[in-house]
Each structure stands twice: as C-alpha cells, then as structure tokens.
C-alpha cells in the first residue's frame, strides 16, 4: 500500500518538473492535488510504520522467551541426554530447507507461457503479409489483484505504414509493447495481426 500511494507523488513530481514554467505562470505552486496525494501517502506510511513497530516488539518478546526456555532446558538436562550443537544445527538446517521449498512453490505457481509451436494453429509461411494490427477490447493487468493497466482499448494500426503513438507518462505504452511481444498475456480482448489472434499461436511464431 505504501508503494501504491507513493506512485502518485513520484508521478506528480515528474510532471511538475516538466511543466514548471506553466505552474509558475498560473501561480499554482501550492496545488491542492499535491497536498491530497501527500496526505494519502502520509496516512498509509504512518500506519505501516506503527504496525511494523508493534509487530517487531511482540516478535522480539516471543523470540527472547523461546530462547530463554530452550536455554533453561539445555542447562538443566544432563550432557548425555542431548547435544546442544544438534539443537542449534537442526533448526538452521530446517530453515534453509524451507526457504528452498518456498522458492520451488513460488516457481510452481507461476503460470506457464504458451508453447513455442502449436501445430494446429500454425500460420502460413509468409505470415504476416500486411502487418495490420488490430486491438479488440484489449485489457492487460500484471496480477489479478492489481488494477487494469490497459482498459478496453480498441484500435487498428494499418499495415505497411509507420504509426506513432503519443501518450503521457504511465498511460501504458510500455505495457502495450509487452502485450504485442507477448511478454505479458492479455487479461481480456484480442490482438490480431493480419486477422490472426496471436494468443492462439505459439511463442516461436
């Protein structure tokens, strides 16, 4: 949440640097929008800081209590009953093993990309012939829990032509390039190149 609330501040700052002359011309140095984004960020950052400190105090208390109990047990037990070195080594080894398992599970949850070649959906050898690109209600988001970066864009780029797209910072141009290159798969809609849906083609195509 802190990162989400910080993004508007950075965006406002970069936009203010670009339009500094216009801001001074209209005497808008004390802009209410900047005050609002700062207020939103300060509220989230404060609660994040307080929550972190609250959790840190309790975690330190629990850790010290557990360490004290284990130390008492090791001191009171006879030397032949337990080896202190094993008591320390085993938890460390288990922690390292659990980190490896966690990384494997993270890789397992990553969605698989499309195969390199889909035999039933291979285009003709000369494809693409025109280079016409059509976006039909294109929707792109980087994570299901994140907001849409591209929301229902529909347009056509004619073939055999150079097309330029002008947009403001953060409007999703880099995301559009990634979607055309299939680095990011669309969440909805279609991308057609010469009337072929590229989501149904292999990545090598």
Summarize it.
By secondary structure, the protein is an alpha+beta fold. The chain has helices at residues 2-18, 20-25, 32-76, 84-109, 173-180; strands at residues 133-140, 150-157, 188-193, 196-197. The protein folds into two domains: 2-109; 119-200, 3-Layer(aba) Sandwich (Rossmann fold).
Describe it.
The chain is of the alpha+beta class and about 200 residues long. It has helices spanning about 1-20, 20-25, 30-75, 85-110, 175-180, and strands at about 135-140, 150-155, 190-195, 195. It folds into two domains: about 1-110; about 120-200, 3-Layer(aba) Sandwich (Rossmann fold), CATH 3.40.50. The protein is built from five helices and four strands. Helix 1 runs antiparallel to helix 3 (about 30-75). The longest helix has about 45 residues, at about 30-75. It is flat, with a radius of gyration of 28 Å. GO terms for molecular function: ATP binding; ATPase-coupled transmembrane transporter activity. InterPro entries: ABC1_TM_sf, ABC_transporter_C-like, P-loop_NTPase. It comes from Malus baccata. This is ABC transporter domain-containing protein.
Q: Based on helices, strands and strand pairing, what is the structural class?
A: alpha+beta
Beginning-to-end CA distance, first to last residue:
39 Å
Walk across the major sheet and give the strand order.
Answer: 2-1-3-4
Continuous helix count: 5
Major sheet characteristics: 4 strands, antiparallel
Shape: flat
Are there runs of 5+ residues with pLDDT below 50, and where? Answer: none
**What number is the mean pLDDT?**
81
Q: Radius of gyration over alpha carbons?
A: 28 Å
Which series of helices and strands comes N to C?
Answer: HHHHEEHEE
Helix content: 40-55%
The tally of beta strands, per DSSP, is: 4
Number of domains: 2
Strand content: 5-15%
